[in-house]
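The instructor's notes for this session suggest beginning with a concrete chain rather than abstract definitions. Hand out the sequence below and ask the class to guess, before any prediction is shown, which regions might be ordered.
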Amino acid sequence: MRAVTLNSVPATPSVADVPTPQPEAGEVLVKVAVSSINGFDAATAAGYLQGAMEHRFPLVVGKDFAGTVEAFGEGVEGFTAGQAVFGVVMKPFLGTGSLAQYVTVPAGYGIAPIPEGLGVQEAGALGLAGTAALDSLNAVAPAEGETVLISGATGGVGALAVQLAVARGARVIATARPGAESDFVTGLTDAKIHVVDFSGDLPAQVRALAPEGVDAVLHLVGDGSQLASLLRPGGRLASTIGLTADAVEVSGVTVHTIMADTNPQTLTALATQAASGALRVPVTATYPLEQAPEAFAAFGAGALGKLAVTCS
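After discussion, reveal the predicted structure:
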């Protein structure tokens, strides 16, 4: 099969022929229609995960997938051949990713049916970013009317988090540069989004909107300590990029380090919202599998929203 691979890290991903995986006991083989690029994939290629996870070369990259069930291993129940599914590859090693024509995934975790009304392109870009956004919001638990600062609102996680926060009745302050980035963020929802320019004096801009401090912060990019200083006493911060409480020199705030939990219940909840139109998966460009290296380059250059990759 064709797949996006790495023969070492750090390296630029390339497309190559590799053996088609076969499902082991408890696994589902999915024919991948659409995948997408995530920060995790870029970090893998950059070599940032060396020492943190086992790497098996040639390493097929990719976390998100949407497609159809092709086959399943011994003991798998609840799935049928040809069923439309989506999810996130969650294995204790790197090497059998989803930027490929086929992928194997555990039947009990990281996979869920695609509901009626949700397109395969959107499903293939929803899993990891959607889960990270939802888990982050659940951690800081904004009440209606509270102010949430989302640092990194132009990316896949941030764009979904903006919508999810608005749906909870939160007042959202989002970081984006003026122009196309700001237009992208404010176009995510009909609600008013207060945009602040992270390339300028971010603390002053946020304090002008929330003089007593914001109630919660989603730390998706940027200086976590600086963002924590913008919280009111008793405020909460959720970080998807490894910030811990020990690294924050601000007293009276709570820090949550988020590892996306792509369980079937969370995936189903996200898919239901997306299928109903309550949540828009912000796919801004789609690349064929053979052009996946170009998608990685565009991601690294700061592309807005999610970049999808068609795999079959």
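Then share the key points. The two ends are 10 Å apart (CA to CA). The chain has nine helices and 17 strands.
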